[in-house]
User: Fold these one by one.
Assistant:
Number 1:
Amino acid sequence: MLGWFKKKEKSSEEPVPGSAGISSQEQEFTDDAAAVAASEGDEDSAEAISQGTGAVMQDQTQENQKGLFRRLQEGLAKTRDSLVSRVDDLFLGRKEIDAELLDELEEILITADLGVNTTLDLLDEIRNRVSRKELKDPQALKLALKERILSFFAGYDDTGMQVPAAGPFVIMVVGVNGVGKTTTIGKIANKFTESGQRVLLVAADTFRAAAIDQLKVWGERVGADVVAKQQGDDPSSVIYDALDYAASRDFDVIIVDTAGRLHTKVNLMEELKKIKRVINKKMEGAPHEIMLILDATTGQNSISQARLFNEVVGLTGLTLTKLDGTAKGGIVVHISHDFNIPIRFIGIGEKLEDLREFDPGEFIEALFANDHHL
Ligand SMILES: Nc1nc2c(ncn2[C@@H]2O[C@H](COP(=O)(O)OP(=O)(O)O)[C@@H](O)[C@H]2O)c(=O)[nH]1
Ligand SMILES: [Mg+2]
């Protein structure tokens, strides 16, 4: 969809920095495989096979997509119940849109954590359209609501993560304790390794020993290398080690886990600034993505976290986790309304596959879809 997880094309003319030993053998092997695939006169060529199975594959892709959409709907079930089902109930048996209905709608939206400003913005236009008699019945209003929410994403920066043309793509992950940083890193790493990319995880959260072990477990699970030191070590020295390690190896992606003790503590923020500086000093242009992880169940609090982290390190992307555990998924809309920082992923469960690339249209569709879509 967004293409971040495609295997990078590696030009054989361009020397890979420090590609010695295993990496260069791998390169040769890939080139050989490409040569074999391209050889002519082979009746069982990849092309012939793929033509024969094309229809089946298309069916499977559609099936998979249906499955993924259903999974997203299930993940958003609590928010759907609290938001869309309540809106439906509100409309039941009513043929007209009156002031009372709009007030009740306002309350529902605010309760689902869309936030007061977002809700007022949302309803402003709806109220205007009602008074202009453009919206006559509740169904039309529901559709208008959906369109209006979607319009909040219209000016939305969806250029995607800035993957460099050469060298590894470095992602620095930040966020307060327990929001799901390490878990999300595991899930993202999995997407990259599954698409054939080579991933290094960096355990720069040295605050707790358990955090280091947790990252190692993820690394093993998804087939990514992990550079870690001891609990209490300077996070910047872990970065140094990791980027030295990476210099002689051909990684496509490097993901740096960081500590997340209370975000109100100034020293954590200083530490994050330093980590960013050190990464940049060791590798020009990096980190390419500074991603804040937010726990959707914390509701409004995540707004102040986004503001603070953005001021300190300058965020390039957001990920909202635990949308499966909250009835207040409206926070996604609220965040998009208040910040011009793209949402990269949403977490809808604890399992490896429960991380979705964020697509506003799909998200709103899953939230508003009727059950017959299930
Ligand atoms: N239900 C649910 N739990 C999640 C999700 N993402 C993370 N978690 C859980 O949140 C807890 C804290 O995650 P962790 O990655 O250790 O947070 P960190 O302190 O920010 O690194 C763990 O129990 C995770 O399994 C999600 O999308 N949904
Ligand atoms: Mg962690």
Number 2:
Amino acid sequence: MNDVDGGLDEAPGGVGAGAGPSTGEHARAGGAPGGEAQEVLHRVFGYDAFRGSQQEIVEHVIGGGDAVVLMPTGGGKSLCYQIPSLVRPGTGVVVSPLIALMQDQVDALRAVGVRAGFLNSTQDLEERRLVEAEFLAGELDLLYLAPERLRVEQTLGLLDRGKISLFAIDEAHCVAQWGHDFRPDYLALSMLHERWPEVPRIALTATATEATHTEITSRLRMEQARHFVASFDRPNIQYRIAAKSEPKKQLLELLRTEHAGDAGIVYCLSRASVEKTAQFLVQNGIDAVPYHAGLDAQVRARHQSRFLREDGLVVVATIAFGMGIDKPDVRFVAHLDLPKSVEGYYQETGRAGRDGLPSTAWLAYGLQDVVQQRKMIDGSEGDEAHRRRLAAHLDAMLALCETVECRRVRLLAYFGQESTPCGNCDTCLAPPQSWDGTVPAQKLLSTVVRLQRERGQKFGTGQIVDILMGRKTAKVIQFDHDALSVFGIGADLREADWRGVVRQLLAQRLLAVEGDYGTLVLTEASGEVLRGGRQVLMRREPEKPARAARAKAAKGKRAPVDLPAEAMPVFEALRAWRGQTAKEQGVPAYVIFHDATLREIATARPAGIAELGAVNGVGENKLAKYGEAILEVLADGPSAAEASTEGASTGRASAETASAEGPAGNGWAGGSQASGSRANSGRPNGGRPGSGSGAAASGRAATGAAGRPAAPEPDADWDWDMEEPPPEEDREGAYG
Ligand SMILES: Nc1ncnc2c1ncn2[C@@H]1O[C@H](COP(=O)(O)OP(=O)(O)OP(=O)(O)O)[C@@H](O)[C@H]1O
Ligand SMILES: [Mg+2]
Ligand SMILES: [Zn+2]
């Protein structure tokens, strides 16, 4: 059954960088106007219906109009230019900064019969020549280009000699100069309109703040374009922001209890923490690789490719990873450090759950994040206006972290969209309360004032908290701080509570940090609090927040594998076939078919080719290529399943298949536990999270409370484990 039929010698993966049309037949639409877009969607891509505003956008561009499209990460922007490129005469030219992904994008298009190619610096002259020839011969539906190509007169001349159906400017926020992904070459794209005024342009981005939107429109000279702003909600993603105590341990706990064997991305701020975290996960039996700009390009490419091709790999990365990656089954995105902006956070978390199945966005956030980021801004290059902008971004991110309201309502409001509490974020699942923290705030602020006024001293959080709590540490005695009138006035709160107070005062700008040691100083607004003229509301962490959220999440998580019992072995058989096929073609498994499509096939069990063609995700080309093979799997399935259940160890799926397809891919034995099998299967070195670097780090942190180490330099490879050391009894929740 694993003998896939001969159609596979037309493997799209075998077609190099646009080296010639693969099959001769291709996907271009016939001629009839009207329902053409719909027809292409159905026939080529195999989808039943357009999503949201896709249809409107597609028709507008087919009609020759310019469009600015704002749609969330994973929302389906690609079809908005791919379908018009197929319908309009000529080649759709796609400008994209994602060079490392062009091969995969082209492979995926070729897999559905679209004639696609790319031109970028990874190709040699010969490969480029081939693509250019195809373009000139009118044999390309889509041509992907890196933006820097368009600064070369030679490329412009080439485009002049061919026929262009449209320009798509993907990841258009790269034109925004103060954005997190600014690419200078994007600025030059305003010339497209001058040089080719007749060719419609469509700019697309998942970054949707008013400021970015305006900047895209003006810099690309798209004032005349129609604007399409989709809903930014990604309802299948569960947003959670947890109090950071020992981030690596917390992460491990999350992966073990909720995402065993799942693919996911873990974001860290520094390269060093990326390396350490990846190592920590590997030591604890999780399949993880690092990814950051300091790694060799080849290593990066290899890790990205593994992430795309394998099931269940975790990539620990700086923000340099993930943009435009169309891996549908990323089940979680975790942040171990505070993102610098809500836009960045939303784009990164949006990489989870593109297939619409339940996914988790989890962020660990604590005092040190605020200290660190404020310091980074103070030390950043650029003028005052630039720093103010960075600070505004951070403030919005902090407000999201400290809110007692629905996270999603907050997020969507940030993008100017109204909504009601979602029921699928941590604050909805385990509502935190707000409490009046005015008195503790006054106590803390007056300690800072007294140290400064009476002693001419400034100290960091650790010493201030020790004074408040009346701890006679060596450092307190050394500085005679037990003689201060504020000594011990805060004994009613615990250390974690005080750190929460500091964090929230910093977040609300009622307190500030200064210098290399992160010393605390007052702000202009502090006086009002001290004088009793301002109430300070604080967030009280819910008791056992994680658990409440987790119970629900765990239930939700069953959904992806929640197939009728009899469909399960068929699904597994299909996955095994897919893994084998993908491997032979050298493409990611989802390029063959998404899980969702296999699931539908397993449930519906189509009896013939026509019925199979009606399944969502099965287009004309894939039907022709894989139809017979799938029907064979379906015919074999049940009996083969029984045979294999008896002898699971000799299951049909080869070892290679299993590794390409992940834990659930190894034959029929997996059943509904399949997705959990990897990490639970008792790996070597699968020690408790308490062992290894986590414990070492907390040991260090405990001493840190008394003699806090200097906060590291902004861009240095700092270690977040040094901070946030709540005493043992505080683990359950700061105010429990
Ligand atoms: N109408 C549709 N029906 C079913 N699936 C769809 C539809 N439109 C898009 N998809 C799927 O949704 C996924 C995300 O699409 P796409 O890659 O275009 O997202 P995007 O908006 O470009 O996201 P990003 O901002 O991350 O680049 C893809 O796997 C795609 O196949
Ligand atoms: Mg995209
Ligand atoms: Zn909510």
